[in-house]
Amino acid sequence: MKHFDVVVIGGGVVGLSAAYGLVKKKVSVAVFDEGDVAFRASRSNFGLVWFQGKGEGSQDYVHLMRQSTQQWKLFVEELEGDSGTNVDYRQTGGLSLCIGEAAAEQRKKQIDNLKKQSGDEDYECEFLSRSELEGLFYPLKLGVKVQTASYSPRDGHVNPLFLMFALYKSFVSLGGHYYGDSKVTDIVPVSGNGFELRTNAGIIGCDRLLLSAGLGLQSLGPKVGLDIPVYPERGQILVTQRAEKLFPLPMSGFRQSEEGTVLLGFSNEDAGFDDQTSIQVTAKIAKKATTVFPQLSNLRLVRTWAGLRIQSADKYPVYAESKRYPGAYAATCHSGITLASLHTNLLPDWILTGEVPSCIKQFGLERFNV
After folding, report:
1. What secondary structure does DSSP assign to 33-50, as a single string?
2. 245-298 pLDDT, tens per residue?
3. Which of 215, 220, 214, 217 is nearest to 199 (CA)?
4. For labelling alongside 239, which of 254, 258, 332, 351 has CA 20 to 30 A away?
């Protein structure tokens, strides 16, 4: 039976980010990835590394996002050095466009609440006027309903596929063991210490275990005494033909890749485990996009797809260690791309020592049992 210091179940962005950090600690690490049959959250990933507008009502989450966005530049430098892969990360700042007066007032109220919540700590977000936006986007014209937008210099974007490949490549090149198309069917705690995993690659032993399998936590968590309230949220994305550079920076719902394709997506649906696209939502996304930028109607759509994102009961991350079976950990979140730098830097020490970093203490399971 093969045995590892740590096994990570889940080969998405969260799992690979933690595994990359773990293997750099010179411990033996294996990642089990079920493959494309799984409900991959990355399918509906937009590639934004985003700070603004997140954490209203939870200053702890604002701190988490600030810390992670601060670490992204160094994270990318190390990752690209280890993998030899350019992940196309650009911290250009980002916009959230407001369509109509009601949306503008709602956004201003949200950002104002976040600034008040932050107290003496500067909350880096401001609003741009219509004329400022027109100058920023010229010669691309704005729709008449766009009057303002919030802007944060902390925001940026990355190619999520390149990021995933770089994490995988770095993990393997540094000595990690990657089991692709490998499903973990059962986890058996070993009396006294460690775990045995039943997989289609055989029985695998480990001293410590990280569950980062997204929606798979619903079935895997209880096997090690972790009841994690997660549910699926469907998101759909549209992609256009390649075009000359249109956007000077990424926006919530709009992003142009380095290759020129325009990604559109603003949907959040409660559709259970249905990860298929729907004409109604596709049409709604396209209509909203052309309302903001009428000239986008001249671009041809080349593909669309949907994916299931992971949400917890309160929509904040979950970082938990099993009290019944110490050594079994779980990590899941909605903002896996933005938090990738933090997951690489902080989760390994937590998993190897059991000492919870102060910035994630507030995101344990205890908050759901009050």
Report:
1. ---TTS--GGGG---EE-
2. 999 999 999 999 989 999 998 888 888 888 889 999 999 999 999 999 999 999
3. 220
4. 332
